[in-house]
Amino acid sequence: MKESLPEGVKIDDVEIWFQDEARVGQKGTTTRLWAVKGTRPRVIRQEQYEYAYIFGAICPTRDLAVGLVLPTVNSHAMKVHLEHISAQIEKGKHAVIVLDRAAWHTTNKIKLFKNITLLFLRPASPELNPTEQLWQQLRDRELANRSFENYDDIVQSSCLAWNHYVDMPGAIRKLCSRDWANLKR
């Protein structure tokens, strides 16, 4: 994997993106919820094991997100996701995608794209990837404390949650901007 920008790419032409995956499924997340003082609300927690994965990438500077809901995480799925990200990068621009070191991110099976450079985070540093806050928002607002009928329900709910959040103007920029990731200071 490349660790520096390709020859001829100027810093003004670089976009910083963050990428990660989240598992959504029947053995889901429980989260806090509002209730009348003195009561103990009950929430559903399924015991089945059917899942889908949201592949998400965000560019806070452009308030843009690219997401896919896929049945598995592997190098092929990552390659498809990178193709979708590559298509969203403006002509003449170059994206530096910040991501963790999952095996499907670091494999040589991923086709490198001319307009993308991968920048890997240090191990055990999820706090440096603002996509983690996006996952928390999706879980807290729409995906936690619920049951899913089947795989199709998981996919549909994941797509609706993703689209609902990223379609709000300014949501990605507000939640995911980081001063240290701003190249135009």
Task: Kindly summarize this structure in a few lines.
With 185 residues, this protein is α/β, with parallel strands linked by helices.
Question: Based on DSSP secondary structure assignment, what is the total number of beta strands?
Answer: 5
How large is the share of residues in beta strands?
Answer: 15-25%
Going by CATH, the homologous superfamily would be Ribonuclease H-like superfamily/Ribonuclease H
Rg over CA atoms = 18 Å
Global structural class: alpha/beta
Total of DSSP H or I helical runs spanning 4+ residues:
5
- How would you sum up the major sheet? 5 strands, mixed
The stretches of 5 or more residues where confidence is low (pLDDT under 50) are: none
Give the CATH level 1 class.
Answer: Alpha Beta
Q: How many domains in all?
A: 1
Order of helices and strands: EEEHEHEHHH
Shape: globular
Describe the structure.
This protein is an alpha/beta fold. The chain has one domain (11-28, 49-181): Ribonuclease H-like superfamily/Ribonuclease H (Nucleotidyltransferase, domain 5), CATH 3.30.420. It has five helices and five strands; from the N terminus they run E-E-E-H-E-H-E-H-H-H. It has helices spanning 75-88, 103-106, 131-143, 151-166, 171-176, and strands at residues 14-25, 51-59, 64-70, 94-99, 116-120. A five-stranded mixed β-sheet has the order 3-2-1-4-5, sandwiched between helices. Strand 4, helix 2 and strand 5 (116-120) form a beta-alpha-beta unit. Helix 3 (131-143) crosses helix 4. The longest helix has 16 residues, at 151-166. The radius of gyration is 18 Å and the shape is globular. The two termini are 28 Å apart.
